[in-house]
């Protein structure tokens, strides 16, 4: 097929362009394809991780119900190692900590609560872990550790609970003015019809505040 002069010039121009940039365009296309496949593959991997984590978490719950502390130790360690980046990692640590506390294994409970507070991807779970850790330290009369846990960054939605716990710690260590201040700050964070507000207000009244 014959081409006129203008068409031939366009063809020659395209050939020259492809000769100069063709390899780069092909490489770019290949990189985009690989990136897309990698993205899809990563999505499938994450989906599989969450599914497998859920199954392991269900097995952990059975061990919790059975009171199998040794089994819980192993199952929790496995979940934290293999699925620690999924939401099930921190949740498993919270469950395990509760059984450890009930069995008077405070070292195990403390370790699990600390792990959950450090690795939780959900702000609410992190806050609960810190509150329980502070409560454990309070029970052990380890007041500096309890206050340190309460001083850590947390979801603002839990401010009242943190301040209430802080008041309990300060009261237990004998610092009534600090306890009163913490309770007052906690009350200020809660709506007037909150049952928690009324309960904390009772603590304040007992302190003469």
UniProtKB/TrEMBL annotation:
Question: Looking at the keywords, is Cell membrane present?
Answer: yes
Keyword annotations for this protein?
Cell membrane, Chaperone, Membrane, Transmembrane, Transmembrane helix
Q: Where in the cell is it found?
A: Cell membrane; Membrane
Give membrane topology per the record: Single-pass membrane protein
A GO molecular function assigned to this protein is: protein-containing complex binding
**One cellular component (GO) term of this entry:** plasma membrane
Note the InterPro entries from the entry: SecYEG/CpoB_TPR, YfgM
Enumerate the spans annotated as Ancillary SecYEG translocon subunit/Cell division coordinator CpoB TPR domain: 15-208
Transmembrane stretches in the record are 21-39
PANTHER family per record? ANCILLARY SECYEG TRANSLOCON SUBUNIT, UPF0070 PROTEIN YFGM
* Name by which UniProt lists this protein: Ancillary SecYEG translocon subunit/Cell division coordinator CpoB TPR domain-containing protein
| Species annotation | Paludibacterium paludis
């Amino acid at each position: 097929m014959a081409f006129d002069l203008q068409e031939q010039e366009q063809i020659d121009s395209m050939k020259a362009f492809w000769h100069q940039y063709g390899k780069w365009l092909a490489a770019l296309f290949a990189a985009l394809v690989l990136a897309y496949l990698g993205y899809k593959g990563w999505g499938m991997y994450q989906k599989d991780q969450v599914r497998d984590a859920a199954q392991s978490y269900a097995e952990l719950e059975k061990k919790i119900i059975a009171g199998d502390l040794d089994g819980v130790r192993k199952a929790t360690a496995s979940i934290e190692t293999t699925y620690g980046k999924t939401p099930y990692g921190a949740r498993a640590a919270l469950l395990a900590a509760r059984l450890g506390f009930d069995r008077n294994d405070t070292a195990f409970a403390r370790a699990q609560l600390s792990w959950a507070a450090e690795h939780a991807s959900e702000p609410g779970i992190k806050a609960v872990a810190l509150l329980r850790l502070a409560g454990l330290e309070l029970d052990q009369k380890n007041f500096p550790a309890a206050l340190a846990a309460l001083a850590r960054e947390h979801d603002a939605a839990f401010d009242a609970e943190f301040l209430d716990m802080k008041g309990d710690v300060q009261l237990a260590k004998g610092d009534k003015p600090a306890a009163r201040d913490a309770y007052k700050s906690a009350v200020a964070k809660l709506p007037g019809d909150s049952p928690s507000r009324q309960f904390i207000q009772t603590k304040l009244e007992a302190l003469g505040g």
